[in-house]
Amino acid sequence: MVHTSRRRCIFCGHFPELSICKTCREGATDIIKLIEQLGAQEESNHDAGMETSGHRQGLVAVASKTRRFEDLVKRSSYLKKLLKALLEEVHEDIELVTDDGLSVGAHKAALTFGSKVFRSMLENKVLSQTCLRIRVPDIVHNELKRLVEFIYSGRLTPEALKDHSKSLMVAADKYDVPQLMEVCEAYLVETLNTENVLGILELSARLSSPAVLESAALNLILKNWKSIIFFDEYEEFALKNPLLALKVSRSVPEWF
Question: What residues does the BTB domain cover (predicted)?
Answer without folding.
Answer: 92-160
